[in-house]
Amino acid sequence: MKQAKKKAFNYELDFKKTDFRKNPELYRIGKGEQGVLLVEPYKSEILPHWRFKTPEIAQESSEHIYGLFLDYLRQNDFVGADMARKFLQMGYTRSRRYANHRTGQKYKGPVPDDKKGQSGAHGRDQLPLDPDPVKAESARIFKEKWDEAKENETYKQLMAEFRSKYES
């Protein structure tokens, strides 16, 4: 079966005024963590629980966010479930960044003005690794929950239905 072409994440929307629970047709899954800090009301529901400073905090955070993920699935709310999945993914990626670079800074120098808001080095040199095993453990904890969410059969079914309905 041929997979439907995925629509790109739309950064042109007025995120401050858009309620994606009421307007799921406006949501785009995008790549990775796209929209994780934009899509309401989910950002406001999930962000207060997103923490990774220590493995204990990461464990509590990832379990709470995974619980929200399951709640959204029970409500057949794919957008909410996908946003919770993105927060779990972001818990992993941010923990990994701090696991590799204690300051959280990956590159030397400021981001050029015309590149702000975009990911990537933009010609800057990468700073040397300065490993933090505590953050590495936090990352492992988030990765476990992120993988669990990605492989959830109900999530995969709702994603297929969402793509069929809104992204094809």
List the helices and strands and how they pair.
Elements: H1 42-46, H2 55-74, H3 78-100, H4 133-150, H5 153-166
Low-pLDDT runs of 5+ residues are none
Taken in chain order, the helices and strands follow as HHHHH
| Mean pLDDT score | 89
Biggest sheet, in brief? none
Helix count from the secondary structure assignment: 5
Cα distance, first to last residue?
14 Å
What would you note in describing this structure?
With 168 residues, the chain is mostly helical. It has a domain at 36-107 and 134-166. It is 48% helix and 0% strand. It contains five helices and no strands. The protein has helices at 42-46, 55-74, 78-100, 133-150, 153-166. It is globular, with a radius of gyration of 17 Å. It starts with 41 loop residues before the first helix and ends with a helix. The model has no long low-confidence stretch (mean pLDDT 89).
Short description:
48% of the residues lie in helices and 0% in strands.
Give short descriptive properties of this protein.
about 170 residues; globular; 5 helices
